TrEMBL record:
InterPro entries in alphabetical order: Fatty_acid_hydroxylase, Sterol_Desaturase_Related
Pfam families per record: FA_hydroxylase
GO CC terms, sorted: membrane
Primary site of residence: membrane
Keywords of the record: Membrane, Transmembrane, Transmembrane helix
GO BP, sorted A to Z: lipid biosynthetic process
Transmembrane domains' residue ranges: 20-40, 60-77, 97-117, 144-164, 170-188
Protein's name in the database: Fatty acid hydroxylase domain-containing protein
Domain of life: Bacteria
One term of GO molecular function: oxidoreductase activity
Ranges for domain Fatty acid hydroxylase: 106-238
Protein localization: Membrane
């Protein structure tokens, strides 16, 4: 019973941290866009349709269930580390400052590849309804949809962490920053506002994802699967052809791009 109590207490601590990270990350994005820059962001909305209060309640409810699932996988990851099976390190001197700094972009690149292929697989007809349809109930997503996953999808997304820590040496501070970047990037991708300038896609930074890129995924479903970068979508031919036009329109502050389709339920990848 003492063992079970310790496990429950650790799970509760991890759950509290993951939940706080969700609310702080999403809250920060929403505060900047819809409080500090409310008038400006209204001009650069991507869709004309607005999410309802019911949409937001659903997104928050399922996101809280996701943080509970993440806490279970986090508990497993902690035990993996304590069992000596992970490559997590606590002193920068073990791998040096150069590697420690480079490991952050490396883990983001690895996570982007993992996310792309898992996300694309979840659009297969045999997996979509059970794993991913719930996330696509957000036809016009808000930042609260960042973790709005069915339990099966939440498990698949969370498994990246125990996998990467047994394959790649990571300092604890890098893990902390990575997790912060992940939630903020998710919140930004679902925010519904295109805050990048018009020249973004034609610049050297064009490989970095934009809110329009992921918003089109929620509108059309079968394309634009990437998280941080557009590389995989370009390489695999899954980037929507109208992405640049939709981006320029949203970034120009013109008429918003309306939700393009109204199917009875999202179509899975064929």
């Amino acid at each position: 019973m003492d063992w079970l109590q310790r496990e429950v207490e650790l799970w509760l601590n991890i759950f509290a941290i993951d939940t706080a990270r969700y609310f702080v990350g999403v809250g920060a994005v929403l505060f900047v866009l819809f409080v500090l820059a409310r008038v400006w962001s209204e001009r650069y909305r991507i869709q004309s349709r607005r999410a309802t209060r019911a949409d937001v309640r659903r997104e928050i409810s399922w996101s809280l269930l996701t943080t509970a699932v993440y806490a279970c996988v986090g508990l497993f990851t902690v035990r993996v580390e304590q069992g000596g099976a992970s490559l997590i390190y606590f002193k920068v001197e073990e791998w040096g400052w150069l590697y420690t700094c480079l490991s952050l972009p490396l883990v983001l690149i690895a996570h982007d590849a993992y996310f792309y292929w898992v996300h694309r697989a979840l659009h297969h007809p045999r997996l979509f309804k059970a794993f991913h349809r719930l996330h696509h109930l957000s036809r016009t997503p808000t930042s609260w949809a960042a973790y709005s996953f069915a339990p099966g999808e939440a498990i698949l997304m969370a498994l990246f962490m125990p996998l990467i820590v047994v394959l790649m040496p990571l300092h604890v501070s890098v893990i902390f920053v990575f997790l912060a970047v992940m939630i903020v990037r998710n919140a930004v991708g679902h925010c519904g506002v295109e805050f990048h300038p018009r020249w973004w896609l034609d610049s050297p930074l064009g490989f970095l994802n934009t809110p329009t890129h992921h918003d089109l995924h929620h509108q059309k479903f079968n394309g634009n699967y990437g998280l941080y970068f557009t590389w995989w979508d370009k390489w695999m031919g899954t980037e929507f052809e109208n992405y640049k036009a939709a981006f320029v329109k949203a970034a120009s502050g013109g008429e918003p791009v309306a939700g393009a389709i109204e199917p009875s339920e999202p179509a899975a990848e064929r």
